[in-house]
Design goal:
With 392 residues, the protein is an alpha+beta fold. 48% of the residues lie in helices and 11% in strands. The protein is globular, with a radius of gyration of 27 Å.
Length: 392
């Protein structure tokens, strides 16, 4: 994987194509990553190793041991990556049925400079045959399923892979697939080469030029601002988020259910933005000496803790206190830690009969959520009255 990132990389294409000035606005703001990003990087590394062993005959033992030793590794991650390797195996079998000499490329660096200035990326896996180019992107996150339909990132990867190999193969269609094992989601979209090249010329190229020059209009929104590093300091995003507070709700003085719904829809993004501003300001004040009028950095609250538990236990034992008095009773590891110790599948086989999942507390979510609606108290009372009337 490349160590540096392009200004207009494929992963941020949805943002910088919609909000063209955002790419330049991010310049100079470090990407601090997250635990989830590191976890995804580790999963990609394991997936890459499995593919290289299968299709390149690589000796991956030492590298795989190193990956397994990472604190973020789990048996579940290993199982998910085995599934990814099996999925690629299926796609290769399909390619061999259509072509005598399909070629597979793993973590293939491709360039898009004819359409995006100084841009490049790394495709997780691509399979090249006459007629069809298969571009497979592994996503390890478990937030929401990502669709390959109208996906700018996948189209750019498809474009780069096509440009890389169109000289050797008569590629007529590009099939783009997003594989999300933790969500059991596989999304695929296919474009003809003519459709992809037309999109690249008429939509991608002009938007990329605007983004490269830092021109165009800001386009704040939940999808464009969510992963933008400049979101905490962007005035356009501030105005977008604060618009809710300036909403001029109609009389009567109490909001209607429809108005409350509008607040609920915007609330998660508003809270995320507020937290990102707070985190940005704290980092700037501590690490760069920035001052924000009316605020100062102080020492946060903390709790007392032992420096040497064994020494304290020894002192108390000599003072006549019993072990049962100074130590907590033993307790089992939590479920996640136990599955990591034993292995998720094996632990389920051994102790699955003694594990339950209690009902979660009721929560309000959009109707698009896949979980079934609960039978609320009001609905239960209504059902009871209906049943009572029928019985009488």
């Amino acid at each position: 994987m490349p160590d540096r990132h392009a200004l207009l990389g494929p992963s941020g294409a949805h943002r910088w194509m919609a909000c063209t000035p955002s790419a330049r606005l991010e310049t100079g703001i470090p990407d601090k990553g997250s635990r989830f990003a590191k976890e995804g990087t580790l999963a990609h590394r394991i997936g890459e190793l499995l593919l290289r062993r299968r299709w390149e005959g690589a000796d991956i033992a030492a590298a795989l041991d190193e990956a397994h030793a990472d604190p973020l590794y789990s048996d579940g991650m290993g199982e998910y990556m085995d599934g990814y390797a099996a999925f690629v195996e299926e796609r290769m079998a399909d390619a061999k049925a259509r072509c005598n000499d399909p070629r597979i490329f793993i973590e293939q660096r491709v360039s898009f400079e004819g359409y995006i200035p100084e841009s490049f990326g790394t495709a997780d896996c691509l399979i090249v045959t006459d007629d069809l180019l298969d571009v497979i992107d592994l996503k390890y996150g478990q937030g929401v399923p990502v669709s390959a339909e109208n996906n700018e990132q996948m189209r750019i990867y498809g474009l780069g892979c096509y440009l890389e190999w169109s000289w050797a193969y008569e590629i007529k269609s590009i099939r783009m697939t997003i594989y999300q094992p933790r969500l059991d989601s596989v999304s695929t979209a296919t474009m003809t080469r003519e459709e992809l090249l037309a999109w690249a010329e008429n939509e991608l190229k002009p938007r990329a030029l605007l983004a490269w020059e830092g021109k165009g209009d800001f386009c704040p929104g939940d999808s464009t601002c969510r992963w933008c590093r400049a979101a905490p300091i962007c005035k356009a995003n501030r105005d977008y988020q604060m618009a809710l507070a300036r909403e001029d709700f109609e009389d009567p003085p109490c909001m209607t259910p429809e108005e409350i719904s509008e607040v609920l829809k915007r609330l998660p993004a508003l809270l995320d933005w507020a937290e990102s501003v707070k985190a940005y300001a704290l980092d700037a004040a501590i690490n760069y000496g920035d001052h924000f009028p009316g605020f100062k950095v102080v020492e946060g609250r903390s709790n007392r803790k032992y420096t040497d538990e064994d020494a304290i236990a020894g002192i108390l034992r000599k003072a006549g206190y019993k072990v049962a008095e100074i130590y907590k009773p033993r307790e089992l590891l939590g479920l996640t830690a136990m599955e990591k110790l034993v292995g998720k599948k094996k632990f389920g086989e051994l102790a699955g009969a003694y594990i339950i999942k209690p009902e979660g507390a009721p929560t309000l979510v959009p109707e698009s959520d896949r979980r079934p609606a609960l039978n609320t108290a009001a609905k239960a009372a209504e059902d009871f009255n209906d049943n009572f009337k029928e019985d009488n």
